[in-house]
Amino acid sequence: MVLGVMAMIKIAICDDEKTYIDNLINDITEIYGDTSGFQFNQFSSGEDFISEFSRGQFDIIFMDIEMNEMDGLKTSEHIRSIDHNVILAFLTSYDKFVYLGYEVNAFRYILKYQPRPLYLKQIKDTIDEYNRKRKYIPVNYNGILKQLMIDDIYYIEVYSREIVIHLLDKTFTTTGKLKDYEQELSGLYFVKSDKSHLVNAANIDFVEKDKLLLKNGEQLFLSRKHYKDVVDIFIEYTKSRCV
Asked: Cβ(137)–Cβ(1) under 8 Å?
């Protein structure tokens, strides 16, 4: 099993300060070494952005909150009315706007003028979130090659010497070893809950002493041996969206 990766990352930056747009592109270059894997689109106002925006046009949007005329929040409300999947990160100079992002399901709220290591980490976390989401597992299903997006996978189990991949409301059966999936998905918030199940922490709703409650309502047994690992990965996943 080899993970697949989707194409170039399409990033939109909407800010009425051209200097900051240039700085952000330079910062991304500093983080990743070059920008050959990115396509940047620049907008100086919310009005300019929504006049051109369409569903699926961008993978990540960095949006300044404080802009003249149409501010970032109103622009983002328009974005969410069209595209529920694009990753949205708010940029601002003031922390008083921090809670506004939840209204439009923003992934991250980034202060422009904060300690640089934390600022760069938050930029990287935002892009890494898309990198995680765009990875997929290729599965042969009735002679057709299917791409199962990592984010859609709830858990993977070994059953009767077969691998069963569970999505929200369907399953796919394939061949392989669970340990191979565990190794391939390392660093993507997958963790074993017992010897037979590999769970996506992104789709865990609640962790109890001896079971997991998933976001689709399913419950999985959580062994004592794997409890700490599950809690650690679940906390790591949650913190990556908050800090």
From this structure: yes
In the predicted structure, residue 4 carries a pLDDT above the cut 90: no
pTM of the model: 0.75
Helix (H) or strand (E) holding 124: helix 116-134
Residue 205: per-residue pLDDT: 95
Q: By three-state DSSP, how is residue 188 classified?
A: coil
Q: Which residues pair with 135 in a beta bridge?
A: 5
Give the CB-side neighbour count of residue 149, counting CA atoms within 13 A: 11
For the record, the structure tokens of 165 come out as 């991949």
Question: Which pLDDT does position 206 carry in this prediction?
Answer: 94
Sequence-separated (6 or more) residues with CB below 8 Å from residue 142: none
Which regions of the chain does DSSP assign to beta strands (E)? 4-5, 9-14, 38-43, 60-64, 87-92, 108-111, 135-141, 144-149, 155-159, 162-166, 171-174, 190-194, 197-200, 204-207, 211-214, 219-221
> Measured over all CA atoms, what is the biggest interatomic distance in the chain, rounded to whole angstroms?
61
Distance CA 222, CA 205 (A): 14
**Nearest-10 Cα torsion for 236, 237, 242, 243:** 40
Which among 196, 145, 143, 188 is positioned nearest to 166, based on CA atoms?
Answer: 196
SS3 220: strand
Q: What is the bridge-based pairing of β-strands 87-92 and 108-111?
A: parallel
- Residue 198 CA to residue 111 CA, distance in Å, equals 36
Model pLDDT, residue 67: 80
Question: Taking a C-beta distance cutoff of 8 angstroms, is the pair 222, 210 a contact?
Answer: yes
DSSP assigned state of 62: E
